[in-house]
Design a protein that fits this description.
Layout: E1 9-13, H1 17-27, E2 33-37, H2 40-49, E3 54-58, H3 66-75, E4 82-86, H4 91-99, E5 104-107, H5 112-140, H6 149-162, E6 168-171, H7 178-187, E7 196-200, H8 209-214, E8 215-216, E9 228-229, H9 231-234, E10 239-243, H10 250-262, E11 264-265, E12 274-275, E13 279-284, H11 288-293, H12 299-305, E14 308-311, H13 322-336, H14 346-354, H15 360-374, H16 386-390, H17 404-422, H18 427-434, H19 438-447
Helix pairs in contact: 1-5, 6-7, 13-15, 17-18
């Protein structure tokens, strides 16, 4: 997809040629592209053939008045900021225009400076509204929590690629947080104040994917009574997140590839392509490269979306992050349920670390929510469901009377000590081979009581 070079586009609908021309001249110095229409039919053609950022609409038209046109525009899914203009509208009509959602109302004649100021304010207001929506959505999501080397690399890679316009493919098991990384990439990009549209490719039936992604015009097929904007059009100048992209059918893959190659969408029932500027972030829990080599997924599409790959590790690959995540979820869930913050004992955390977490972070969050609701003032291992406890059963031959924590600490002590001896006491090398940070390793050495004199073979 192209960079952010597409200028804001304003549609002017007025049956007076001199007014259309005056507005076009007034906005020409403001880096704003102007499209003019002399009647409703021409205006609707423009709406369906290109992406319009703002409409300037005369309240008194020939065959249809401006308010009726505005209502029809909304019914057809065009929720575009609109400025009404008129030379002989009544006060009631002006009030009605504002009431139904117009940004402003200008009486003719107006100066070039006045129309320029109003258009700029309207475009800026629209951008701020979208930014506020994104901030609110961001606050509803879970933060990326983790201090392990693996997660630090994920966050570092996401921050680097966010500054570019490159396509990104995020891979990882279900529940690892692929959508959160996509959120971070968009939020830290130059497109952060523009739309971020999320699409679950596996949830859209194959016969509807084209209309959902690219839209259609009225009359395109039976039941298409109104126009529909596709999700690529909604994401114009922003980013689109194609989750579970591996589940697209072969036909849908071909249609998506054409959009990524040309930067244009073709609405169903329309002969004219529409230029869009969209940054693509895709995600999958499947091995897309292997699917491409097997011919199940288009190889050319794979290379289009896999410009910058980011892999998110499973939770069992970064056990040192589990206490951080558990405490974060516990605090957040207590606040949400108006509970006093509940402390977590070490035995509870030890069981969590020993568990395999096939559902990854999502499963951990669900377990914590269950525990927060059902536990007393302190969270202990006794509050965990049986399926979590069963995964950490004590092997036969264990010394009776020892706890799960004792067994885990003993095994961890022997493992870390063996690594240190093998590396002749080199902390940095041992931390890398253990897949943890140096700071975390020092903390574990202190907790497990491993003296420096034991480091060397």
């Amino acid at each position: 997809m192209s960079d952010l070079t597409i200028l804001p586009t304003v549609l002017v609908l007025d049956d007076e040629k001199n007014i259309r021309k005056a507005i076009e001249i007034a906005l020409s110095d403001d880096q704003i592209h102007v499209v003019v229409a002399h009647d409703a039919a021409a205006a609707f053609r423009a709406l369906n053939e290109r992406i319009i950022d703002l409409v300037i609409l005369d309240i008194k038209l020939g065959e249809i008045d401006g308010i009726a046109f505005y209502r029809k525009m909304q019914q057809d899914g065009f929720t575009i900021p609109t400025v009404f203009i008129s030379g002989n509208a009544t006060l009631t009509q002006a009030a009605e225009a504002i009431k139904i959602g117009a940004f402003d109302f200008l009486e003719k004649p107006f100066s070039a400076e006045r129309i320029s100021v109003v258009v700029k304010r309207c475009l800026e207001f629209s951008r701020l509204k979208e930014r506020l929506r994104l901030i609110e959505a961001e606050h509803e999501t879970v933060q990326i929590i983790g201090d392990s080397p693996l997660m630090r690399k994920v966050v570092g890679d996401a921050v680097k690629v966010a500054r570019t316009t490159s396509s990104v493919l995020i891979t990882g098991e279900s529940g690892t947080g692929k959508e959160l990384v996509a959120n971070m990439i968009h939020a830290r990009s130059e497109r952060s104040q523009q739309p971020f549209v999320k699409v679950n490719c596996s949830a859209i039936p194959d016969n509807l994917i084209e209309s959902e992604l690219f839209g259609f015009v009225a009359g395109a097929f039976t039941g298409a009574a109104t126009h529909k904007r596709g999700l690529f059009e909604v994401a114009h100048r922003g980013s689109i997140f194609l989750d579970e992209i591996a589940d697209l059918s072969a036909a849908s893959q071909a249609k998506l590839l054409r959009v990524l190659q040309s930067g244009e969408i073709q609405k169903i029932g329309s002969e004219k392509p529409v230029k869009v500027d969209v940054r693509v972030i895709a995600a999958t829990h499947k091995d897309l490269k292997q699917m491409a080599s097997q011919g199940v997924f288009r190889e050319d599409l794979f290379y289009r979306v896999n410009v910058v790959p980011i892999h998110i590790p499973s939770l069992r690959e970064r056990p040192e992050d589990i206490p951080l995540l558990a405490r974060f979820f516990a605090r957040r869930l207590c606040e949400r349920n108006n509970f006093k913050e509940k402390p977590i004992d070490d035995a509870f955390l030890s069981v969590l670390i020993a568990y395999a977490w096939p559902g990854n972070v999502r499963e951990l969050q669900n377990i914590l929510e269950r525990v927060i609701v059902m536990s007393g003032d302190t969270i202990t291992s006794l509050d965990l469901p049986q399926e979590i406890l069963a995964d950490g059963e004590i092997p036969e031959g264990r010394k009776s009377g020892s706890t799960l924590r004792d067994f885990r600490d003993s095994a961890e002590r022997e493992f870390i000590l063996g690594m240190l001896k093998r590396n002749n006491g080199n902390i940095s090398r041992s931390a890398i081979e253990l897949g943890v940070g140096r700071t975390y390793l020092h903390k574990r050495l202190a907790v497990l009581g491993i003296a420096r004199t034991e480091w060397f073979s």
